[in-house]
Give the backbone structure.
Amino acid sequence: MSGPVILLLALAFGYLLGSIPFGLLITRAAGGPDVRTIGSGNIGATNVLRTGRKGLAAATLLCDALKGTLAVLVAAHFAGHEAALVAGFGAFLGHLFPVWLGFKGGKGVATYIGLLIGLAWPGALIFCGIWLVVAFLSRYSSLSALVASALTPIALLGLGQPGPAALFFLLGILLWIMHRANIQRLLNGTEGKIGKKG
């Protein structure tokens, strides 16, 4: 097969894997409510946590991350680094816009981390480190993710990984777009803080 065909297959594979709505599937399997009917209506781990079941939220976080990791590792094994980058992009798009749920998915933080693990694991450590520092100082989960996603591509460039840096710069833009409501609440001073109920 030619290069473009392989990249298209990598994109499709990544998208299909990324589009698996683990938050919805896990909560349903556990007898919980349809996660789309509570809180923000988002299928990600943060909204699953609003069911009051931390174990389900942790499982969602792990699965949403690992589907990104799996997408890039499989693509890299069979088709090389460029295909892995394309599959990673597809997995992120699949998580944000899953065809099975009317293209209404999650915000992408867990999958972003999972892709970092698969493509540039030091970047995952950097992302999580920045997240923890900002979360400790601000108590805002969304702000932590926004700052970490803005700084991680710069860190990847510093590590001599221009390909992943370019990919995660693009993913960061998408992540910021998906967090636009959070950004507005941060600006208004109405964003909920970590550990604060109601």
